[in-house]
Design a protein that fits this description.
The protein has 235 residues and is mainly alpha-helical. Helix content is 48%, strand content 8%.
């Protein structure tokens, strides 16, 4: 499309506007106007075209509205030829129109492929976690909330625990079903002050025993390691 000619009258407060935009000389036009002049009204008018619906004047609905937007051949532009990008609209998501507007075909294909691969990898990871945990919980939000306090920050959570998981030598609780530990009743109990005090006292005494022991050392050889060695018949 080389040229777009607009002829508007009584469109959302626009009394009269006629203008030809020559796209054979430039790919884009910037329209500057004071607040309340006509920018939003113009956007509403083009959104009507994109939605294939008539325009009107909200202040004076009885006035006759004229809306003629044509190309260089004099034909009215169609809904498929118009895309209105609304500011600060969270619902404005991915679509064929947005991809065509923002990306060339090669880059669009590459990005679409990368997103598909990332989604597949995430699905495989979450599937493996569910199988290992023997649970049907939504682990995307469970992991995100555990490490970021926001159940929508799954990727951020993975980044935070990546190094820790790489350096972890074993997983002593890997076979314990997730729901046995993070049962709602258990979580509620852990949140009570009495149980918190008991756990705190246990941890304190445990660390004191390790510090006073000749054989056991925290993080190297503790009671858990001794129990594991004994269960294998090596002691």
């Amino acid at each position: 499309m080389d040229r777009v000619t607009i002829d508007l009258e009584n469109c959302y407060g626009i009394k009269r506007l006629s203008k030809e935009f020559d796209f054979s000389k430039t790919r884009a036009y910037a329209i500057y106007a004071p607040n309340g002049a006509m920018k939003t009204s113009l956007a509403h008018t083009f959104q009507d075209i994109a939605s294939d619906r008539p325009s009107s004047d909200r202040i004076f609905p009885k006035r006759v509205t004229v809306r003629k937007v044509t190309d260089e051949t004099g034909n009215e532009i169609t809904a498929a030829q118009v895309l209105v990008v609304e500011p600060y609209n969270d619902d404005f998501g991915d679509s064929k129109k947005t991809c065509a507007l923002l990306l060339d075909p090669v880059l669009k294909k590459e990005i679409t492929t990368l997103y598909a691969q990332a989604d597949e990898a995430k699905d495989n990871l979450l599937g493996a976690v569910k199988k290992q945990a023997q649970s049907k919980k939504d682990f995307e939000s469970e992991i995100a909330f555990a490490f970021t306090s926001d159940n929508n920050e799954f990727e951020l959570a993975l980044g935070r625990i990546k190094t820790e998981l790489e350096n972890q030598k074993d997983a002593p609780f890997a076979e314990v079903p997730y729901d046995k530990i993070f049962d709602e009743k258990i979580v509620e109990a852990l949140d009570t002050k009495d149980l918190k005090d008991i756990i705190e006292d246990y941890v304190k005494q445990y660390n004191e025993l390790l510090a006073a022991s000749t054989f056991f050392k925290k993080g190297i050889f503790d009671y858990y390691n001794a129990a594991q060695t004994d269960s294998k018949g090596s002691c």
